[in-house]
Design a protein that fits this description.
- By secondary structure, this protein is mainly alpha-helical.
- It folds into two domains: 1-91, no CATH class; 93-174, Winged helix-like DNA-binding domain superfamily/Winged helix DNA-binding domain (Arc Repressor Mutant, subunit A, Orthogonal Bundle), CATH 1.10.10.
- The protein contains eight helices and three strands; from the N terminus they run H-H-H-H-H-H-E-H-H-E-E.
Length: 174
């Protein structure tokens, strides 16, 4: 996919997100990019603070839980459609994703998309367990287990660096 087509696809997804009244944080989670990257994409496309919200008082999960059942289903279907289109068109899919479990793959893809940048524990949990009911979300320790499993499968050209208490980043091995 060329850069013009990719730009158009991102713009189309952003329009959907804005129509769904998502915050920048929620959009960045769905796109698998950092908050700053998402804010930059919005700014370059002419969206301002008056058009979109930076943060919400409640999480996306809490918003869905408070909605009428039919409205919640509609919103989730729109989100699944938007993220499914994004994943299908991604030309940055790493072959390692064919070996990893779905949760490991989600974490690895988040780190791969943000290669060289810190992925915080909170961002990783939000990315992997965003649509999981609150009672079913595991402890943060699960991230250490996922990272350990991913490290076992990493090619020698990549490595995961731990920033104790903060998160991880993916980098080229030297």
């Amino acid at each position: 996919m060329g850069s013009k087509e990719q730009h158009a696809a991102i713009t189309e997804r952003i329009e959907k997100y804005i129509n769904l009244d998502l915050s920048i944080k929620e959009m960045s989670m769905l796109e698998g990019v950092s908050y700053d990257t998402m804010r930059g994409r919005l700014t370059r496309r002419g969206y301002t603070g008056g058009t979109i919200r930076h943060h919400r008082d409640v999480t996306f999960r809490q918003r869905v839980e408070r909605m009428d059942k039919d409205d919640a289903i509609q919103l989730l279907l729109h989100v699944v459609e938007a993220t499914g289109a994004m994943r299908a068109e991604s030309n940055q899919r790493h072959p390692l994703l064919n070996v990893l479990t779905p949760k490991q793959g989600q974490l690895f893809q988040l780190m791969y998309d943000n290669k060289g940048r810190l992925v915080s524990k909170n961002a990783a949990m939000d990315h992997i367990y965003a649509l999981t009911p609150v009672d079913d979300v595991p402890e943060y320790k699960i991230l250490d287990v996922l990272i350990s499993k991913i490290r076992k499968e990493l090619p020698k050209s990549l490595k995961i660096v731990t920033m104790r208490g903060e998160g991880w980043y993916l980098t080229d091995a030297h």
